[in-house]
Design a protein that fits this description.
Length: 356
């Protein structure tokens, strides 16, 4: 019998060869938002390594929405053309490939983590940033400009246009980034959204813009193409966004035609106290799966094949996403198949190294 981890999953018309996914992980290695040899090698290795699905790192829908000057972007033809090369190569080795469409909001305009992770002002290669309300992330961060109704419309159109590019570039599915304190999460959370127009205040108003974005993207995508949304299920701060609100919000996303929720947490504030430990976020996935009646992905310190199998068999999620573990070991799926005594297809070129 197949292990659950290695069973296929079909979402709309797209079938993934197993339930092991690579979550989006910024590489901060692009120039002008365009991918290069690093990204090709990085994503291709995980496809050869046997993952079922790859979600390409946060890719900004406009230059202002990049976290750092070296983020990927998906807002011009050159970027689209290079993504088309990547999707073809990755798909050839069996993984399906999606892209995370993102806008960093008040967390934009920072230096890359290994240089100094500081906010970049305009004198040092940074740019002016926008957010639902003019509240900086912390005392060292830039103060964002409060978005006007026109800004909201412009960003909505940017998401739509990037989704069209993603479809043309051959992506199999799309994920919208609504987590980790970036722009759409900033609209959701009462800690960062202090607006008193149609896009802030009550729960209904805070979810309005993120729902509009999901609706717009869904309507530009082919009917048979899956749409994922990543959320932070909780801010881990009293008075912030929480699991109860997530459950209601996800029901609304489902009505719009979102297929799967990739359930992460945190990122809205440096003051959050996060009890990070093995599988610490899977309970949120489980709660959303049960109460919102939707497919979910569990992520966060999933590292071991038995742990991953257990999460799926106990119906806490429908897929598992392994971030840092796949950075450490791109061949994790091949090794896990051996541990779980699952016969899977190896790359032909590597057959002589097959673990038996
Ligand atoms: C280097 C790195 C970059 C990341 N970039 C993103 C990103 O672009 N978008 C996102 O939603 N999460 C991002 N994350 C979070 C991961 O997708 C994942 O949720 C997190 O690492 C927890 O999973 P793990 O314990 O398996 O690593 C990043 C994490 C790492 C380590």
């Amino acid at each position: 019998m197949d292990n659950k981890l290695f069973s296929t999953i079909k979402i709309r018309d797209l079938e993934f060869r197993n339930r092991i996914f690579m979550p989006p992980m910024c590489q901060y290695s692009a120039n002008d938002g365009v991918l290069n040899e690093w990204h090709i090698a990085h994503y291709l290795a995980r496809s050869i390594g046997g993952v079922g699905g790859i979600i390409v790192e946060a890719s900004a829908v406009e230059p202002r929405g990049r976290i750092t000057p070296n983020d990927l972007g998906i807002y011009n033809d050159v970027q689209e053309g290079e993504f088309a090369k990547l999707t073809k190569l990755v798909k050839y080795h069996g993984a399906k490939i999606g892209i995370q469409l993102a806008h960093a909001g008040r967390k934009a305009s920072n230096d890359v983590p290994w240089r100094n992770e500081q906010t970049l002002d305009e004198l040092h290669g940074g740019w002016s940033i926008i957010a639902p309300s003019p509240i900086p992330f912390d005392k060292d961060s830039l103060v964002p400009r409060e978005m006007t109704q026109k800004d909201i419309l412009d960003v909505l159109n940017a998401f739509e246009s990037s989704a069209k590019m993603a479809v043309r570039a051959g992506f199999d599915f799309i994920e919208i980034h609504m987590a980790h304190g970036y722009l759409l999460h900033e609209f959701l959370s009462p800690l960062t959204n202090k607006r008193n127009d149609d896009f802030g205040g009550s729960f209904e108003k805070r979810i309005r813009f993120p729902l509009n974005v999901a609706g717009k993207i869904r309507s530009t995508m082919p009917k048979n193409m899956p749409l994922f949304v990543r959320i932070s299920a909780t801010d881990w701060i009293d008075g912030g966004w929480d699991v109860a609100q997530s459950i209601e919000f996800v029901k609304r996303l489902k009505e719009i035609g979102v297929d799967l929720i990739d359930v992460s947490s945190a990122g809205i504030s440096p003051e959050a106290i996060i009890p990070a430990d093995f599988g610490f976020q899977t309970k949120f996935s489980s709660m959303i799966r049960q109460n919102s009646n939707i497919l979910t992905g569990a992520v966060g310190m999933i590292v071991d094949p038995y742990q991953a199998e257990h999460i799926l068999c106990t119906e806490q999620s429908d897929i598992v996403l392994l971030g840092r573990e796949l950075l450490r070991n791109p061949y994790w799926p091949l090794h896990s198949a051996k541990v779980l005594k699952q016969n899977i297809q190896w790359p032909l070129q590597y057959l002589r190294a097959r673990l038996t």
